[in-house]
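Sample 3 of the quickstart, ligand adenosine-5'-diphosphate:
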Amino acid sequence: GKVILKNVKKIYDKNVVAVHDFNLEIEDNEFIVLVGPSGCGKSTTLRMVAGLEEISEGEVYIGDKLVNDMPPKNRDIAMVFQNYALYPHMTVYENMAFSLKLKKVKKQEIDAKVKEAARILGITDYLQRKPKALSGGQKQRVAIGRAIVRNPQVFLMDEPLSNLDAKLRNEMRAEIIKLRKRIQTTFIYVTHDQTEAMTLGDRIVIMKDGFIQQIGTPYEVFNHP
Ligand code: ADP
Ligand code: ADP
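Result:
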């Protein structure tokens, strides 16, 4: 779905302005990367789209709905975090099935979706394992699988590869490029890594000190820095 951020601002208490006047229209199925140094407001922006952080001023639309006052569970989004945030007591299968169970999706349908996502992500052999028995890369695949079974309109990723070593990071980056071709969804991806931004983004939003410094395709950003 389309995502629109209109004059969005975030003020934490003690008057810390984390995001100033953020304006962006994201097209359906576009892959947007928010990039910039630590503390520039990327994560806060993403969390406002997710509904995990209150919007101080401005408007956020997902599809054609104004979501400012909508709780996260009612937004048609899925989010993947840096630390995976898997449920430790559940198996991989149960982690991936959980949100669909809450939505009272039929068991057969859940089973088909979990197995399809597991196949796409190459984690079929680990479905019965608990997260603690997985490597970092495997955990991140499960986190992505848990998100895609929901067919979200918007897929939010907050530094998903930052906890992986360089080799796995490259591997998972390629995996995300493949995934992107397979599923119809709008991506908003946060990273401090310029290579990730340049290789993944249809458009890159460069942030600094809470402001948007530049928006453009990788080509535009590379040639007119
Ligand atoms: P980034 O994701 O680019 O590293 P963040 O969005 O996490 O940046 O942070 C932006 C700014 O907001 C930083 O100055 C940070 O210290 C501040 N900040 C983030 N979360 C909070 C919070 N819960 N309370 C107060 N200030 C915060
Ligand atoms: P219940 O909710 O009664 O515990 P289950 O969740 O075990 O029932 O659902 C049974 C079906 O769901 C099985 O036929 C199987 O296809 C699938 N399923 C459930 N858990 C798993 C699992 N850990 N691994 C593989 N398939 C599972």
